[in-house]
Amino acid sequence: MTVTGDCGGKPKLVAIGIAPLGIISIGIVPMGVVSIGVVPMGVVSLGLVGMGVINATVVGMGVLIAGVNVMGVWWTGMEGMGPFRLGGEAAQVHHHHGQPSGNYFAYPTREQALLKAGELGCQGAHPMGRLWMPCEEHPTP
Question: Which pLDDT tens digit goes with each residue over 41-58?
Answer without folding.
Answer: 999 988 888 888 888 888
